[in-house]
Design brief:
Layout (H helix, E strand, L loop, with lengths): L2 H7 L13 H13 L9 E6 L2 H8 L14 E8 L6 H18 L3 E6 L11 H8 L6 E10 L23
Antiparallel strand pairs: 1-2, 2-4, 3-4
Helix pairs in contact: 2-4
The protein binds flavin mononucleotide.
Flavin mononucleotide binds next to strand 3.
């Protein structure tokens, strides 16, 4: 599939069957995250692959809204970044998340980005702090988000080129 077709096909999918993601597909998704470029090639990102149902349930409560789907996911990839290694941890983590999201689509794996940074749980705990405590992470780690992954053969309709707002492009020639 051409990259543009994968970009059109990519949708946030929040409902999953209880099938497992084949390990070769999950490995490709992780390879995509590890291949993502980083500022000054500092590579601050690490990826925690969570399949344990109890931990998935806890991660599903990492935000007051917008994280519930993780409870039924086959797997969640928590993207953490060592902020001592790079002050560009937000950008580096976001690119890794986007690469993994696209690879998931290309592998027919359903995915949804769950924002952690700047969000809080229903009892007003900072979402990043909640996840750090849950996963016993050092203070230096920052968490842009979690990629929720599962299998779902019914995808929302693909995006189309007609949706593109070319008005957002300014040209200085
Ligand atoms: C930075 C970012 C944060 C997001 N956070 C969440 C989230 O916490 N929960 C959620 O259900 N979807 C989240 N999404 C998914 C967006 O809501 C979704 O991409 C957007 O509505 C467009 O829909 P589409 O992905 O199907 O094209 C996030 C997406 C991005 C890029």
């Amino acid at each position: 599939m051409e990259l543009l077709d994968i970009m059109l096909k990519r949708r946030s999918i929040r409902k999953y069957t209880h099938e497992n993601i084949p390990s070769e597909k999950l490995n490709k998704i992780l390879q995509a995250g590890l291949l993502a470029p980083t500022s000054r090639n500092r590579k601050p990102c690490e990826f925690i692959v969570v399949k344990d149902k109890k931990v998935l349930k806890k991660l599903s409560q990492s935000k007051s809204a917008g994280s519930a789907m993780i409870e039924d996911a086959d797997c969640a990839i928590v993207t953490i970044a060592d902020s001592d290694k790079a002050d560009t941890w937000i950008e580096d983590s976001s690119i890794a998340m986007a690469y993994m999201d696209l690879m998931a689509t290309s592998e027919n794996v359903a995915s949804c980005w769950v924002q952690s940074h700047l969000r809080s749980t229903s009892d007003n705990t900072d979402s990043e702090e909640y996840i750090k405590e849950l996963l016993d992470l050092d203070k230096k780690y920052r968490i842009v988000g979690i990629l929720s992954l599962g299998i779902n053969d019914t995808r929302p309709p693909a995006h189309t080129l007609d949706e593109i707002d070319y008005g957002k492009i300014q040209r200085i020639e």
